[in-house]
Structure formats: structure tokens, C-alpha cells
Amino acid sequence: MFPAASLLTIILLALSIAASPFQIRDSPITLPIARRLNVSDGSINLLQYDKARVAALKAGYHLGSPPVTNVASYYIAKVGIGSPPTAYDLIVDTGSSNTWVGANTAYAVTSTSVNTGQPVDVGYGSGFFSGTEYTDTITLGSGLTITKQSIGVSSFAVGFSGVDGILGIGPVGLTEGTLTNSPALTIPTVTDNLHSQGTISQGVDTNGELTFGGPDVFKYTGDIAYTPITTTKPASAYWGINESITYGSTTILSSTAGIVDTGTTLLYVATDAYNKYKSETGATLDGATGLLLVSSTQYSALKNLNFNIGSNTFSLTPNAQIWPRSLNAPIGGSSKAIYLIVADIGTPSGSGFDFINGYTFLERFYSVYDTTNSRVGFAKTSYTDATTN
Ligand SMILES: *[C@@H]1O[C@H](CO)[C@@H](O)[C@H](O)[C@H]1NC(C)=O
Ligand SMILES: *[C@@H]1O[C@H](CO)[C@@H](O)[C@H](O)[C@H]1NC(C)=O
To answer: Do residues 147 and 189 share a domain?
Structure first.
């Protein structure tokens, strides 16, 4: 069980998986997802969780697989597997690509379960799972089934208390090496299998949703601006893009590569960019939370933080640059303080991995992960300029 997890409905994350954006089906398939904050002992060290993931993501391209475990906050989807389906709570992860179950609820073998006998292993930096590959029917949301989807069934997992496993929606290349007897093989992901198997379902509106099949036009305003996956390593192994960042009109990070990641909570930038942001805002480092702290006067003077992606600019307003004040206490902060969500990635720019647009960025925009055309898209939503923090 998950002792002190809370379901948070602060803001909508419109996360869309566009398996085939030019082949729009009658209506997209949506899967409700819920945000969970992993508060096990009353307070969480947000930075410690995030930094373990950042370090492992940076190193992951050598190992074939990135981390997802011990994250401070993550998105959970209820996914049905088997026939009749058993419901599992899976972490929705754009930073890894294997789908697996069995960490908590035991995998229920049904008539659609086929044991391939292949050992499967994924190391996630601070945790891992090890088990056997099956193929089975997966049910997403209320209407979509995928048959013969490869899944891992865990016989041993570390670092996944309170969840059943992962729905991995990263690029397929991240599955390479995970079938240990055939390390050169990749495993078609859930997104890959949707190409030929998509069906129709009515939309479901909750605090977040994952849209399969094509962008959901009701969830964003204006156009979706697409940008190609970066060619710069190591960001290119993930949903990596090129962008530059300006604070007001001051450039804090020149055009460089980094990634978009649902499993990272904060917004990470290279050390030099972080230092510029810190001096521009006048923020100080808060010892208790490890986050940047501003006074209410400094908060009133904040300028937009602009992400220049291709020919488009996506701006985080001052309110979007602060940690939700209602969640100050769970991260060990003082309830009236104003903390910023910009954090130091720990290496100077030029590393090929100079930023992570984590969910504090993603919750303000609609994002599309287009496997077919190897590109990421962003659009504004009605939450982009919200003042909910
Ligand atoms: C939640 O936090 C606990 C305690 O730090 C950790 O053992 C567990 O693996 C975390 N759960 C997830 C899904 O990250
Ligand atoms: C991204 O930036 C790198 C380094 O400047 C450049 O070589 C590359 O062409 C850019 N675009 C893509 C899609 O990688």
C-alpha cells in the first residue's frame, strides 16, 4: 500500500502521446492519470529525489535504461492487463520505455497471458526490476485494448513501494539491452503497438490525461509547435530537444540540448544558467528545502522565464516559476515562503544535457510525444497563465 500518498488536483497536465498525428481517428483515446506526491514520512527531500534521477538520466545512455525510481512526485495511470483485466497502478514515464508490472499487486495470469520465457531486466539508477517477459492484452482507459503487448513481469523489484510498475512511453531505443538473452533487440512499446491497434473511446476528463491516437484539440489553445528530437547526445536518447532560455530579455542559457521528462519534478538548468537566474531574481538558497527562495517584493518583480523552442516561445509566468505554496510543508518549507522551481543540474552548459523541463514546466503546457516523426510538440492551455501556485 501507499501510506501517505495524496492525489493532487492542482493543475492539469495535458500530456499527449501522438502515435500517428496525421491519421486522426474519430476521437482520441484518453486515459485518466493522477499525480501522486510520495510523502512517506511527512516531508520529502525534493532535491534529493530529483537529483538521483537527474544523475541516472545523464548516465543512462551508457546503460541502455534510465531511472524512474524514488521520485518525489509522479503520474499514475490505472492500466488493465489480461482478460478479464486486472487493474495495476503504473507510473507514467516518458524517460523509460519498458512496461512492466508485479512490484506490488501480483501479476494475474489469464487466458491472454503468454510467457515468452525471456528474462527481462531494467536498471533504474537507484532501483531496478528483474523478471520474465510475457505478452498480454492491455486495456487503457475505457475503450482501448492492445493485444500481444510485451510486458515485464517482475520477480524482484527494488524502489517501487506503493506502485505496481511502469508504463514506459519513452523512445523505443531505451528498451535495447533489457531482454538479457537478446541484448540487441528492442521491445515495441505500448505507443508503437498503437499504430495498428488503436480504437475509439469517449474522452475522460480528470486532473490529467494521456491521449493516445492524436492530439486532443479541446485541451490546448492555438497551434501545436513541433520541434525535432535533438541530435546531441546524451539528450538524443530521450525526448530530447534544443532550446534557449531567457529571463525577461536576458539570455541565461544559449541554445543547447536537454530533455522533457515527466519523472523530474523541478526545472533543471546548467549551473551557469542557474547562477544567472539566481542573480537576476535576487533569490537566495534556502537551507531547509534546497530551493531558491524569494521575498514577496522579489516575487512581485519577477519577469517571465522564456523557453525558445524552434521559432516559438513558451513562457513561464512569475506564478508558474514558484512551487505551489500549498505544498510548502510537505517539502520541509515554511508555509508562507515563496520558493522557486528552477534548480541546478550540477554541470556547466555544453554537456549535451543542459536542462530538464520537468513537470513544473509540463503542467503549464500541452505536450505531444510524436514517435512517428521523432519530434515533440508544445501548445498553450488554459492553465499556462493560471495563478494557482
Ligand atoms: C517513495 O518513497 C519511499 C521512501 O523514500 C521509497 O522507498 C519509495 O521507493 C518511493 N516510491 C516511489 C514509487 O518512488
Ligand atoms: C541542435 O543543436 C545542435 C548543436 O548546436 C545542432 O548540431 C543540431 O543541428 C540542432 N538541431 C537538432 C535537431 O539537433
So the answer is: yes
- Nearest one of 134, 137, 129 to 112, comparing CA atoms: 137
Question: Is the distance from the beta carbon of residue 160 to the nearest atom of ligand 1 less than 6 Å?
Answer: yes
Structural domain total, the chain: 2
Asked if 205 is an active-site residue, the reply is: no
Within the chain, where are the H helices?
46-63, 190-197, 271-281, 296-300, 359-362
208 bridge partner residues: 13
Q: Indicate if 233 and 214 belong to the same structural domain.
A: no
What predicted TM-score, i.e. pTM, was given to this entire model?
0.81
Q: Could you tell me if 275 and 348 lie in one domain?
A: yes
State whether the beta carbon of 163 lies less than 6 angstroms from ligand 1: yes
Question: The domain containing residue 169 runs over which residues?
Answer: 8-218
- Quick: pLDDT tens for 292-301: 999 999 999 9
Range of lowest pLDDT (24-33, 88-97, 245-254, 267-276) = 24-33
CA distance to 93, 189, 221, 241, per residue, from 99 (Å): 9, 7, 32, 24
Integer Cα distance of 111 and 83 in angstroms: 6
In a domain, 118, yes or no: yes
Q: Whose CA is nearest to atom 14 of ligand 1?
A: 70
Which range, of 176-190, 204-218, 278-292, 372-386, averages the lowest pLDDT?
A: 204-218
For ligand 1, whether the C-beta of 265 sits within 6 Å is no
70: left (phi over 0), alpha (psi -120 to 50) or beta: left
Helix/strand/coil percent split, the chain, to 5: 15, 40, 45
Do 119 and 256 fall into the same domain?
A: no
Q: Is the domain of 93 the same as that of 15?
A: yes
